[in-house]
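hey m, so remember when u said the tokens were messed up on ur end? i reran from scratch. heres the input so u can diff it against urs
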Amino acid sequence: MAQLAVLNAAPGTTRCLSWSNDGELAVTAGENVQLLIPNLRSSNQPVPGVHDPLWQNLVIRTNQFRESEVPIQEPLSFQNWSIGEEISDCHALRTEWSPLGLGQYRRSVLAVLTSNQVLSIWASTGSRNNASNWKRMVVVNHALKNYFPRSPSRESFSSHERIKFELAFKRQRIRSFTWCKPAYLPLTRTYDPSTISNDTSWGENLLVLSNENLEVIVARVQAIHDIKSGEPTWITTILHHFSVASNIESTQKNLLFEDYTQNRPYVTNLTISDWSAPKQGFIEASLAFSSVEGVHIKKLRLSRNDSELHVGFGPHDIHYPVQEFGGVGPMAWWQSRSEDEIRYLVFCLRETSPNGDQVVSLCDTGDGDAPVFSRYDLHTMWNIVSGIAFSKSSDGRSYVHLPTLLDSGQCTKFPMPLLNTDNEIGTPEWQKTIAEMRTFYAEKTDLGENSCAKVWDMVSSPLGDFQATAVSLHPAKVLEYTIHAQEETMINLHKDFPSGEIPTYSPEMYSGRISSECILFTIKAWWTGGIVTKHDKTFKATIEKGLRETIENSQPCDPILGRGLSSITSDQPHHLVAALSRFSHQLCLKQFDNLLSTQAVKKKWIRTTIDKAIAKLVIREVLDLPSILSQMSVNSTRIVASYAAAQAKLQAEQDKEDSEPSTMQPSVHEFSELCDICNYRIVFEDLDWSKCARGHKFARCALTFLSIQAPGISKNCSICGLQYLAESFVIGDDSQLITEEPAGNNASNTGREDGEASKDTGGNMTDIPRKQGTLAEVIFAAFDACVYCGGKFVR
């Protein structure tokens, strides 16, 4: 369909791709991780007949560590040493994006596992399109170091104590990891009124790890962003761990070194299903992993007691053994999304039959019944399955794709669920594309039939309508001489449905917190790939066919609007944030309309104006909040006054359309600000802009409708470009918006009561320290994305 990028690097390992819910693609490539960031805005000077680039390529070097991050360590004994920890080049082995919500402005962060068995979390501290802004925020191994006890020193140890000391190092080496889906727990605890948080709208973020000591660890990752400085405080808490029993005898020292390293038992291929609906105070997911003895499945249960999260396990474990000298390849969960919540685990067994690898489907009903297994030969002798991806066709059917490292051209596409594979399935488009690439490479290099393609990985887009592959081309049957500067990896985008058709999305797709950025990227990918024409008159109708019904039908499945939260009747600030978050989710259909009329369908990027229909709903919802919130700070009082003025302005415009000019009544809500430049009054004239009496013009905050009168105090939407005041300005220092006004000011004091602000003897307004849990804090916590299109903020 389309070649996204040509990377000047070689992956070096399979499972090298990861696709975030924001549409960002990460590629592990040796010393670096390369990020493909979607370009969501059209260029200001478009070239006729030329599409804007779909991606921007960033290179982040991940193999360099400070001594505080990875201390210098003396070699350990033969029983506990690690070749990766001691002498590796720290190449990236695996990357995976977190769910939305952890990063700045609620974006995803990137977890990177390097060959020295260190797991790092990377996040952007500014513009995500600048590689220098990506920093290592957390080294997860430090949490394991603090969790597992060890002796303070290894000097003057007996041999038994020395082994215990070295075992602590072994337990903090990370072998595999995976992110859990966001965990939404019922609001059952009483929150501290001084604490404002929106974890109810983004869920709890859990990380599942395995170490060198055959242990699986469940960790909670939190990023608390300081309102004043904007700097996050990262907290990694180990919630639970368990050991995986192994009947493999320890390897004898007289074996060859290769046999010793290959036969050491370990846990890998961690993958976890979606969380079930809350029942009996907990939610449940199926955790699958592999060891040298086979595939294991445990039921992971999560509950909350006051401020603590608790991890438990279900009564029924599942074990699927593998043959001796066999191995387990990629694994992934697929859920039918039916009412009985049947889950299918699809995994590959390597070289366990004369016909090569096998694909196994394990059906887990979730009610303790014996699982149902299905096995099929892949006929991939001397080849391995390098990835696993699911796709959605235009008729609503789901398929699983199993690419092999050495692409043989044989179809490895199966319908889901894997119960009957007798039906003929045509060659998928991605295999056709790879065959064309191989043919072109053979002609270019005069290799003829002596060429081959390696498929390093394959992943699906967040909506499941596109698949990306990482492919490299090489000579076959002859030696290949190359240097790093000549290495190339092609990232290709494929669709699994006929041209001119839009796939049918299941209603649950949007419930996974698919972002507006991802939807906009999908729209651009449709017309970039020729599925629809950008300037087709039916373009909007075509898109609505694919996504509108999905969003309309997704609300019962939305963890914010549906089963994930209990009803909220409390007036506590935290509960009010959850209530406003529900309201924000209900705006998603109106936001979708704005997405259709923004950058994806414009020839030139233009800043969007405020959608007055959405503004009316937001104003009404905020003004209905308890009045006590606006009596706690001066800024909250000013926000209420600006909302009342905006509501009156909108009502006056509506009356003007419905009535004769002579019947209009003047607004009873008067609100004004002072110009920071000339100290003249700014009356409320428009929702988008403000202007003082001497002509100084400013943009208004699209959420509070206050004037933005200074540089560096605002943020803007990454999609529509609307400007918002920054939290650090409105909340971080409440006195920044307090201006000295002369006595006799007619500005409205709507909602203001005694004790929050007073007049001094000189007639000037002074403020007292504000209380916690103000209206400003509540609305900024709830509306942490653009109200009008759902886009995330940038500064």
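this time it looks ok to me. Residues 609-795 form one domain. if urs says something different then somethings off w ur setup not the seq
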